[in-house]
Amino acid sequence: MKKALLVALAFSMAVAAAQPVVAQTAAPDAKIVVPMEALPRYGSLVSAWYKKPVYDANEKKVGVITDMLFSGGEINAIMLDVGGFLGIGAKHVAIPAEAITITEKNNKSWLTINTTKDVVKKATGYKFDAKEHAWKQM
Predict the structure, then answer these.
(1) Which of 36, 67, 97, 138 is 20 to 30 A distant from 78 in Cα terms?
(2) CATH class of 46-137
(3) 74: left (phi > 0), else alpha (psi -120 to 50), else beta?
(4) Sheet holding 61-71, edge to edge
(5) Torsion, CA 54, CA 57, CA 60, CA 65, rounded to 10
(6) What is the pLDDT of residue 84?
């Protein structure tokens, strides 16, 4: 058994070594990325928002953040999962990123939106298309 494993390993190494190595060069106008020495000033982390509930002004849950849509380095929209029970029958709606804020009270913080669950449930729904890796209108 060990001998067969060693033969297989030697064969795979020989095949890998036989593959030609192609040097990849950067385009002449491409910038070389250098890691930052210090973090820039920022307001919030994506991890502080992802899968977090969002509440209305009366502290009633409106939905849960399931995705964020980026373009040009900025968040354009936030996908909010509303309705349903344990993920069944849920609807995904797009919310402008600037509509969600962080509310703080009594040393606690949570995400809020100035709307109600009823208004959000009536909004256009979206479904994630795994083939195209994009959200599509339902």
Answers:
(1) 36
(2) mainly beta
(3) beta
(4) 100-105, 108-113, 53-55, 61-71, 74-82, 91-96, 126-129, 134-137
(5) -10
(6) 77
Please report the pLDDT score of residue 25 as a whole number.
61
> C-alpha distances in angstroms, 5 versus 10, 12, 17, 18, 100?
9, 11, 18, 20, 57
Give mean pLDDT in consecutive 10-residue pieces for the chain, a chain of 138 residues: 40 45 64 88 83 94 94 91 79 94 91 93 93 92
The pLDDT of residue 43: 75
Considering the entire predicted model, what is its pTM? Answer: 0.70
Per domain, the residue ranges of the chain are 46-137
Token pair for 70? 């980026």
Distances (CA, A) of 41 to 38, 44, 75, 106: 9, 10, 16, 26
Tokens of 78: 């936030």
3-state SS, 72-130, equals: CCEEEEEEEEECCECCECCEEEEEEHHHEEEEEECCEEEEEECCCHHHHHCCCCEEEEC
